[in-house]
Design goal:
Isopropylmalate Dehydrogenase, 3 domains, binds NADP nicotinamide-adenine-dinucleotide phosphate, binds magnesium ion
Length: 405
């Protein structure tokens, strides 16, 4: 009989591209497989495989998460024209994350890993600020064009039974621009539920903000839907029971408060706000490589990943046989997040305990041993004792982990 930790239900393991694919294998080989009898269903979402399967592999991976509940995903290339040529692709396949998100109807939550020697740019921040971004509609599904001669722009809606609503947007005397945006209640409702669910899961306060003083119908509708779901679906009593609050304010007030806060809450953001603010927070907390990400579906499926991409520049160095110093922290935490969730759902405390120990071992490597990759060494205070190559860092984490088990 093996002494490895056993898993009850399998985890969906979604592999990807370039440098993150290289680290994916290293993390499994050095930090997971020696200790866990890793039960996974493996999906290879490398660009080659997606091209070979006409991207069906991406759909299959998402369906597997629906079946088993928890997945962990490596970064993947979203092909542009240059990639089509580089990989000789049949076509410019869609973003795998977009495809998976559409199938799971999920909301993405991003949280920084905080380390004592990597100080946030905002010195008040003591705890993570997690961003939940609504990933549907608004300016990301807009219709827009330029106006080149004088005339009147109207907003017209024709219902299926022929009623018409119209409002003047602007009477143009000269050239200008117009844009139409929309959102749908169903999507805002599932965003609200995902945020309430995640806040409860993490036992953390929830903030939400829009510009409803200016956008008295559009933005106000987001606020109203959050309010309604909070009260009607019993989140209010659950929040009170857990000692957490739901706080609504104006977006500009929220930004000012966030900077003065000590962190420790979930910040639900409309699509554009979340796009901008997650990059802002990610870099303000130290490094893109310390940002973790989880897709939470309102139906109870979870997909964990690192927020960063495939780190293409480092991969090209790696291909030339040169040493790289690429940070695997967010990949390690994607795995620990997924293993913890699997352990919670299956009631296998040993798996949760292992994941906690692995996180501690990784944090100690940077905080105590001060062994870290170049991206962190540049900003560490006190300075790094050793700037580790990609594999050396993972080895150092493995050494600390062995001591804990
Ligand atoms: P990226 O892979 O996130 O890398 C951008 C830069 O950030 C890197 O060149 C590197 O800076 C730094 N960096 C990111 N992660 C790092 C890590 N773990 N350790 C050390 N440094 C790190 O973004 P990109 O270069 O714009 O995109 C590359 C590919 O990733 C694209 O094909 C894109 O489609 C894909 N992508 C995928 C996902 C996803 O699957 N979730 C997300 C974003 C992008 P230095 O070069 O200065 O060291
Ligand atoms: Mg962005």
């Amino acid at each position: 009989m093996s002494s490895k930790i056993q898993m009850k239900t399998l985890l969906v393991d979604i592999d990807g591209d370039e440098m993150t694919r290289v680290m994916w294998a290293m993390v499994k080989d050095n930090l997971l497989e020696p200790y866990i009898d890793l039960k996974t269903e493996y999906y290879d979402l490398s660009l080659e495989k997606r091209d070979e399967t006409d991207d069906n592999i991406t759909i299959e991976a998402a369906e597997a998460i629906k079946k088993y509940g928890v997945g962990v995903k490596c970064a993947t290339i979203t092909p542009n024209a240059a990639r089509v040529e580089e990989y000789n692709l049949k076509k410019q396949w869609k973003s795998p994350n977009g495809t998976i998100r559409a199938i799971l109807d999920g909301t993405v939550f991003r949280a920084p890993i905080m380390l004592k020697n990597i100080e946030p740019a905002v010195r008040f921040w003591k705890k993570p600020i997690i961003i939940g971004r609504h990933a549907y509609g608004d300016v990301y599904k807009n219709v827009e064009y330029k106006i080149d001669k004088p005339g009147k722009a109207e907003l017209v809606y024709v219902s299926n039974n022929g009623d018409e609503k119209r409002k003047t947007i602007q009477e143009f005397n000269g050239p200008g621009i117009i844009q139409g945006i929309h959102n749908i209640d169903k999507s805002i409702e599932s965003f609200a539920r995902a945020c309430f669910t995640y806040a409860l899961d993490q036992k953390t306060d929830l903030w939400f903000a829009t510009k409803d003083t200016i956008s008295k119908t559009y933005d106000a509708h987001f606020k109203e839907i959050f309010e309604r779901i909070y009260h009607e679906e019993n989140y209010k009593s659950k929040f009170e029971k857990n000692g957490i609050i739901y706080f609504y304010t104006l977006i500009d007030d929220a930004v000012a408060r966030v900077v003065r806060s000590e962190g420790g809450f979930l910040w639900a953001c409309k699509n554009y706000d979340g796009d901008v603010l997650s990059d802002f927070l990610g870099s303000a907390y130290g490094s893109l490589a310390l940002l973790t990400s989880v897709l939470v579906s309102p139906y109870g499926y979870f997909e964990y990943e690192a927020a960063h991409g495939t780190v293409q520049k480092h991969y090209y160095k790696h291909l030339k046989g040169e040493k790289t110093s690429t940070n695997s922290m967010a990949i390690i935490f994607a795995w620990t997040g997924a293993l913890k969730k699997r352990g919670e759902l299956d009631k296998t405390p040993k798996l949760v305990e292992f994941a906690d120990n692995l996180e501690k071992a990784a944090i100690e490597t940077i905080e105590k041993n001060r062994i870290m990759t170049g991206d962190l060494a540049r900003i560490s205070n006190p300075p790094a004792k050793k700037v580790a190559e990609t594999e050396e860092f993972i080895q150092a984490v493995a050494n600390n982990l062995t001591k804990k088990l």
